[in-house]
Amino acid sequence: MPLLPRATLPTLLAICLLALPETQARGAAASPWWKGNLHTHTLWSDGDDFPEMVVDWYKNHGYQFLGLSDHNLLQVGEKWVTVTNLSYRDVTLDRYRDRFGAFWVTEREWNGRRQVRLKTLPEFGPLLEEKGKFLLIPATEITSNYKIWPVHVNASNVRAPFPVPQAGATSVREVMQQAVDMVLQQRAMTGQPMFPHINHPNFGWAVTAEDLTQVKGERFFEVYNGHPGCFSFGDGTRLSAEQIWDVALSLRLTTTHFGALFGLAVDDSHRYHEFNPGSSNPGRGWVMVRAPRLEPSDLILAMERGDFYATTGVRLRDVRRERKRLLVEVEPEEGVSYTIRFIGTHRNFNPASAPILSKDGSPYPTTRRYQPEVGMAFLEVSGTSGVYEMNGTELYVRATVISTKRKENPQAAGEHEMAWTQPLFGTP
Q1: Domain-by-domain residue ranges, the chain?
Q2: For residue range 204-231, what is the model confidence (pLDDT) as tens digits?
């Protein structure tokens, strides 16, 4: 069979992916839920601890899978770090040596400096992975920018890093499209299940809902990012990531017809020594994926079906996205109350919008402000279970679960534990 032109492969894959939302997750209730984080940093880029220590933290805190997504690389090759450059210097090294043993740590003197070699993923992966219990997924954060705006796209279960996209780009969305196309190209060429996802839209206020509307082949973005500089909840003037989700969903389903956009919760963790709201710590946001096995292919296929939810602490006993019904059941905690809010947009919504203005009257270059009917609350239920029955007028419906439990070590003041289901799409 002759090879297809390289430019054709991402397009064909995108077409296949766009067909997936029509087959919504129905059932799979017998499969277990797997807890994982797909956005994590180590000393291989701008994290402040050794990769084994980071993995060990997640494994010991009940995670079953983890993607170490250091910037523009995979954890392979040779890299040394200077001890005096570490955030906590000897403390970091002492903890590392105490946990894994002096025999594991490789040190040297180089130009009068004490250095430690970073272990590679092929080295530390077998030490920490456990079949059916804990899995490491090769990942990278494709880190670029357009002018002053940071543009970051994660790629999960990749086989090689990617060049930094920029060449010839004339907008944020073009940089995103380049990154997405590279990931889909690698997937098509290798046959390896993998996917890109758009990171922290409000980091630097770089990515708008209108940008997300235009990216072809992209099906995931971060509705919650635990980094305090990513403004997941907006800033009181500019939209939250959740509001951006609703705008992008509404427009993708009616204007570009690029289909589903699923929401992830991630840590974007960098700091592992000092825990406080001002630091990008682990344990703030994760996904729960319902899949038959703890294998990359099973997890990715389940996520592409939308058979997962995003959370900052609320656990769901069940989520059912049936043909015309979305069912949500919470795993309750004693003394905690829950509100289940079913949110969506009707087919006949008004798409009119206006720019958000700063105090001096100039428009912010951010997501525009849309009518209240975009991402409106269809139904609100107090309790641990709720069902929304679609009547045929909805483009989609999703659920946000809000608890009365304050989040431990939040990235925003007053934050409560929450969860987000994936949207159920209406049928004409």
Answers
A1: 32-79+118-425
A2: 999 999 999 999 999 999 999 999 999 9
CATH of range 32-79+118-425; options 3.20.20.140, 2.60.120.680, 3.40.50.300, 2.30.29.80:
3.20.20.140
Nearest to 411 by CA among 268, 314, 273: 268
Interatomic CA distance for residues 280 and 45, integer angstroms: 14
Task: Check: CB of residue 153 under 8 Å from CB of residue 176.
Answer: yes
Place of tokens 């912010």: 364
Under 8 Å between Cβ of 400 and 327: no
Residues 6+ apart with CB under 8 A from 402: 338, 339, 341, 416, 418
What is the 8-class DSSP label of residue 120?
P
> CA-CA distance, 57 to 84, in Å (whole number)?
23
CA distances from 360 to 105, 363, 367 (A): 56, 9, 18
Tell me the CA distances in angstroms from 324 to 21, 169, 321, 330, one per residue in order.
14, 41, 8, 20
SS3 186: helix
Residue among 15, 3, 28, 12 at smallest CA distance from 308: 28
Strand, helix or coil for residue 212: helix
CA 288 from centre of chain: 12
Q: Is the pLDDT of residue 15 over 50?
A: no
* Tally of CB atoms within 10 A around 363: 11
pLDDT above 60 (res 2) = no
Instruction: For residues 179 and 125, give the distance between their C-alpha atoms in angstroms, rounded to a whole number.
Output: 26
182 in helix, strand or coil?
Answer: helix
